[in-house]
Hints:
Blueprint: E1 2-3, E2 9-11, E3 20-22, E4 42-48, E5 53-59, E6 74-78, E7 81-82, E8 88-92, E9 95-96, E10 102-106, E11 109-110, E12 118-122, E13 125-126, E14 132-136, E15 139-140, E16 146-150, E17 152-154, E18 160-164, E19 172-174, E20 180-183, E21 191-193, E22 205-207, E23 217-219, E24 236-242, E25 250-256, E26 264-265, E27 271-272, E28 290-292, E29 303-305, E30 315-317, H1 475-480, E31 485-487, E32 504-506, H2 509-515, E33 520-524, E34 528-529, E35 535-536, E36 541-545, H3 550-590, H4 593-606, E37 626-627, E38 638-645, E39 649-657, E40 662-671, E41 674-681, E42 688-696, E43 699-707
Parallel strand pairs: 2-3, 5-6, 6-8, 7-9, 8-10, 9-11, 10-12, 11-13, 12-14, 13-15, 14-16, 15-17, 16-18, 17-19, 18-20, 22-23, 29-30
Antiparallel strand pairs: 1-2, 4-5, 20-21, 21-22, 24-25, 26-27, 28-29, 31-32, 33-36, 34-35, 37-38, 38-41, 39-40, 39-42, 42-43
Amino acid sequence: MHLTRLGWLGLNTDDPEMMFHVHNGGILSTGVTGTNPNIGAGTRLMWIPDQFAFRAGRVDDDQWDGINVGNGSVAFGENNIASGARSVTFGIDNEAAGANSFIYGMSNTIASAAANASAFGVSNTINDTGGIALGLRNTVDGEFGVTIGRFLGAQQENSIVFGGGIDGNTLLVNDIESSLMVGFNSTVSTLFVGPPEGDEEFGSVGIGDVTEPTERLDVRGTARLREMETAEAPHVIVVGEEADEEEGDYVLRYLEFTGNGVDLLAGDGTWVDGSANLCDWNIVNAGQDLATGYPGACVEGNVGIGIQPSDHVKLEVTSELTVENACGIRVRTTAFADTTFGVFSFIVDANDNAESVRAFFGEARGSHAPFGGHFTAHGHSDILEQPPVGAYGRAVYDGSTVNNDNLPIGVYGLATTDLECQRTIGVYGGFNAPDCNGSEFGVAGYFAGAMVELQTPLVVSDQAIKTNVADVGNSLELLSQLSPKSYNFTQNTEYGNVFSKGLSYGFLAQEVEQVIPELVASVPAPIKVTDDGRIQSTGDDLLGIKYTELTPLLVAGIQEQQSQIETQDAEIAELQDLVSSQTSLLMEVQEQLQMLQQQIDGCCMDQGWVPKSSEMGQQDPMGKNELYQNTPNPFRNHTTIRYTLEQGGRVMLKIHDGNGREVAQLENAEQSAGTYTYVWDAAGLPAGLYHYTLFVDDELLVKRAIKL
């Protein structure tokens, strides 16, 4: 044992790292002596022998004083109270007052009456024995009640509730004993499983806010059975029986079929002979209003209106009308249902070998304005749940292989004429909406998928329909701000997976909008159409780019660039002429080079300098100093001169013109070894050949520079 002068105690160590440090050994605490000190707030680790309780963490008040410590309890975290015997808490601001209770999370409460209860999550409350609460702000008031989710309440014994209520003040509550309730974001249940009643072996199930089911399955609303098995000769018919004399409430019962094959079900639920009722219509002669059936086969008889029925047409109508807006058949339906069809045609190829199966075929012949099919959908509500659709075409192919020669086509438009294709349109789509210029929501065509064009599309661009015509300028500056991107479209089922699935190239509309806002417009987000023709839209708008209008900008940019190229070519030619003239000047000054060398040598010797080389521009191969060529060279106004000294010494750096006259002195001082750089400002000097000379003690280094 070692006690430091700071009062730190170490066991089996002379250098304790904390107030109490046991090295390479354990700690054993025995006995029951030692009560809990009431010391209030603090951060501490406590073992309380007389209550065999444990605490570790931090409290802001008296959460760990004696009154809040249960026998055998454990509390970890912040501000946790474990006052129930053998209670356990983990987290922050929890209170476990019930015996054998357990909490994990934040701000959960288990009352003293709620023994053997468990809470997990945030702000859950349990007030009775054996309760379990998982999630957020749930309340359990019934014995052995269970809540899983958020904003839930279990008020009776063994009541269980899953899902979620509206908020902390509006809960989904199960107040029925020994039952299960499921619901989401609501105060009523979607599914309810109740207990058996009396001597019943099984309970009942309610669907749609039915908490007191009277049958094994009690549904508020409609129910649907899918893919029911059928027999060749059914023996039982399921019927609906009105229940409790309440209109709209029915109970499913079974009714055994006891007839002889042609019997009919009477209104009182009995079977009666139906053979006498199979042929209500008589055969009439052709030309009458109605003709139906054949002798001896009226069950399978066909119908003709204005004509004797054909043997291959179930209903055939012939009319010769001379009035305006004459119709062969008119169907008028007043709808009281969600989905209503004026005419629904369903054709099945029974042998799977028909060459052509068509649910609807229309043909109109006339000299003025024949229409093979004309469909109009009117929407008259201020708020349309679904937009009106004039025509909806859907082709479905569910075979095992794809036949590229016969692809499914949702809509097929073909215009035929013998007038050499003059003004012939296969498909025409237009829109008619007030104050809509076609750039936002009014579009004549909308294609949620790729398009294939076999001929070059034509965009109307006649001068007669244009105003405010002006040349495009500043195109290069605009185009330089655009940032082409490669990307992959998000395959989001919300939009029906209509975007390209491979790598794409283009622009981001938000970036283009910052540069050329006229090329960006809002368009409706891709919409989905259900199998029955209903349109489902996300209600969102996306940004689109008018890519075709980038072409004039590209052409204008090319023209601007060509103009710049021509200007630069002229400047290059001018520079070439200047270089040629400077070359001639260089040749002239070469003749003066010897004279300059002699002048420099004489100047050096007059000042006590002895050059190592008498040849202009030649460096001593044995010298340790180096003078580098100036950059740039040739130059206009400024150039950089750099040299390296292997050892220090007296240094002078001078500039002479082509006639040997000194025009500048850049340095004259003692310098140590190293590399030095100077910027020569020759802005006030004429163009021509110059020499820059480096004097280092007894060494002379010279280079040439050309000013343009």
